[in-house]
């Protein structure tokens, strides 16, 4: 089996798993991540097969999206086995998909990703910022019945204890301060840092305009 054939099968598998999602992880997200990964790979010496396979599979077993992530990880493992991936490749791909997330990066002992993993993480994060990122945050917030904005709600690190207890109050605009505006400084590769710059500024401009319009309604 050629690498192209392996990737074509993985793409179909990912499509079957992701195409029904309605929280901003539909297959269009995967396709943008793949395009960005290919772009970054032009400047980075990572193994394209492992990087692209991990990119296609990165959200399939996400514990935010499925109730049985372990079952899906086992399914991915069997599937990659059938496609003649080595145990070493399978271990690397699953390590990447398991450890990519923003919350893991913030943990006391953040996982150390291979270059392939850093590239997938950058591409995933680039899709969470800029105009697409704004759209996805609003889409996700709507799907999860979040309030649009509450000027009283501030980023967690600036909250006092009693505010902190009320965290069901996440708003769409607050999500920018809690996560989206932090991603640019967390990019791994030079290519991603360059792409992130404009997208970051676009979010800053959006938030300034949003708040100006919000206040004008008073
Ligand atoms: P991914 O795993 O693709 O990086 P997430 O699962 O964290 O992304 O979230 C999917 C999309 O929804 C992202 O664009 C993210 O910024 C957005 N999102 C996640 N949590 C929230 C939230 N609480 N409010 C608004 N948007 C959110
Ligand atoms: Ni993703």
From TrEMBL:
Lyase as UniProt keyword: no
Ranges where the HD/PDEase domain occurs: 22-138
MF annotations from Gene Ontology: hydrolase activity
UniProt keyword list: Hydrolase
Keyword Hydrolase: yes
InterPro entries noted in UniProt: HD/PDEase_dom (IPR003607), HD_domain (IPR006674)
Protein name as catalogued: Phosphohydrolase
Species classification: Bacteria, Bacillati, Bacillota, Bacilli, Lactobacillales
